[in-house]
Amino acid sequence: MEYSGDGTDGATTPMATPTTMSSPNTLNCPPPSPASSPPPPVVLSPCAACKILRRRCVEKCVLAPYFPPSEPLKFSTAHRVFGASNIIKFLQELPESQRADAVSSMVYEANARLRDPVYGCAGAICQLQKQVSELQAELAKAKAEMLNMQCQQSNLLSMIIMEMDQQLIAPPTPPQPTPYDNLNFYTEDVNMGSIYEPLWTCN
Predict the structure, then answer these.
(1) What is the spatial distance between Cα 143 and Cα 145, in angstroms, rounded to a whole number?
(2) pLDDT value at residue 102
(3) CA dist 174 → 169, 171, 177 (Å)
(4) pLDDT in tens, 83-127
(5) For residue 166, what pLDDT is reported?
(6) Mind listing the pLDDT tens digit for each residue in 192-201?
(7) Neighbouring C-alpha atoms within 13 Å toward the C-beta of 77
């Protein structure tokens, strides 16, 4: 409360001052938060192809999905043999489902060409075909030996079964007489006296 003086008698009279009442909602309300800042921009590193070619890697780069930044040697090998323009042309002519296989084939052929500049990939293919032919010949030989052993085993089993069947079916053979059983030096009709008759008689 304040007192204000009057000019006539010098008496002071009380003067009411307005008081502000704060509502409970305003007391508990947190201070307004500053405006949310936008997320920082994502910095995308260029693909290995654009990095080696020293050009700006666009959003829809044809080479980016197949030559990541972590594999620069992959593009440099293919680039030395085929060239960047030819690689881009090959990929643009193919559907997306076949591009990954095409890139793998180009990288493999480029490595083979660098190892063998004369024959390149054809030399590796010929060597692999030779190995396949040798393995096929060994496999055919092993199969022939296996078939021969199976035939021998089946023949042996059939012979054993036939012998067992003959032993079960055939009757037991009687004992064969010895050669001396039929020898009879003395028959019943022979007179024992005639044996001792003299060969001549005296008249």
Answers:
(1) 5
(2) 93
(3) 15, 9, 9
(4) 999 999 999 999 989 999 999 999 999 999 999 888 888 888 899
(5) 80
(6) 555 555 555 5
(7) 18
Return the axis-axis angle of helices 96-115 and 72-81, rounded to nearest 10°.
Answer: 70
Q: CA 156, 158, 160, 162 torsion: positive or negative?
A: negative
Side-chain-side CA neighbours of residue 118 (13 Å): 1
**Cβ distance 83 to 89 under 8 Å?**
no
Reported confidence tier of residue 165, pLDDT bands at 50, 70, 90: confident
Which amino acid belongs to residue 186?
Y
Q: 47 and 67 in contact (C-beta within 8 Å)?
A: yes
What single-letter DSSP state applies at residue 45? P
163 vs 48, 94, 156, 167, CA distance in Å? 80, 72, 11, 6
Structure tokens at 201: 């008689």
Query: Residues 77, 111: contact at Cβ < 8 Å?
Result: yes
Q: How far apart are CA 143 and CA 166, in angstroms?
A: 35
Which range has the worst mean pLDDT, 23-27, 67-71, 80-84, 187-191?
Answer: 23-27
Token readout for 181 is 């059983």
3: β partners: 14
**Range 163-171 average pLDDT:** 76
